[in-house]
Amino acid sequence: MGNEWRLLDLGGLEPFRAQALYEAVAVTVGRGQSPNTLILCNPLEPYVCIGYHQELEKEVDLDFCHKNHLPTIRRSQGGGAVYLDGHQQFYQIIAKRDDPSIPADIEKFFEKFLKPTIHACKSLGLPAEYKPINDVVVYNRKISGNGAGELEGSAVLVGNIILDLDYDSMNRVLRVPSEKFRDKLAKSMNEWVTSLKRELGNIPPSEEIRRSLLEGYETIGIRLRTGRLSEAEEQIFRNEIKPKHLSQEWLNQPARRHRALSDTRIVRIAGVREIREVTRKAKKMIRITAEVISGRIADILVSGDFFLIPEQVLPELERSLIGAPLDSRELERRISSFYVKTSVQIPGLEPRDFVDAIMRLKSNGDQ
To answer: What structural domains does the chain harbor?
Structure first.
């Protein structure tokens, strides 16, 4: 028979509602007040969305966004900065965390709940495949980006099918070190990201896309029944979720964690105190900004486009590194202990990836 879930087919929504309404649903699902829920929607206007662990001013060209009236919204899951508009079919999965049909392992969660996305693309005539950790690809180009996490006792997966892509806007909203790098980024993006329009020559009717998606959920044992947003969910979104997302504290949270850290890449003070920033690209990008005094970490900010489950434990990792020498063995001991203590899942990244990133502080910059 399968599990019966609520379907909220909401159509076009203003950006903050399209991006964050599911958080209000996560509250009621986690409390047992609402059933497991699938939301389908799309944004009525374009906006920029950044990952939970990213530093806003280092990832987004804010001047361009302000001049073009593009709001910037920080999501509650990890991942990278993206430009989103009405040519995205959003799906948002919210389920009770302890539901036995929900895999506890984050990669298995992605693999199971991206099967409907793959089914939809195949139904539309495209040879879609799952690409770990969190993408669906067609001819090895991404046609669906996804994020997952835990919120208020709920397991959440949010993603989209890209109907059409404004490559120029996607490229322009991102902050880059030089225009030469922007040209390289544009080329890379064109090679890596695709859309239904690019692959099919047209965008199928929205009803056909949604029907194909809904059929996909049936293939994994979910029976959908059309429902309505509850008054409690409306109130939670209106009184808690949207004000949070509109606040500067939420939008700038990584930087606010460590205001003492300079935005300068390397600052030498009295020859022994330095503030440095380094990046390392493994399967996900890690950015380390740290204050180093006499070879030990005095303060550290870890950011990037990775996912943590649960997302909120990153400050505990940072605290565990305070006072550590720039020694790979000691760093690996502390980071491995953090993994064990918090039972954190960071798909695509192992303790060694963070060690390698932090050890780059010794070389005064990126490599």
So the answer is: 3-247 (3.30.930.10), 258-363 (3.30.390.50)
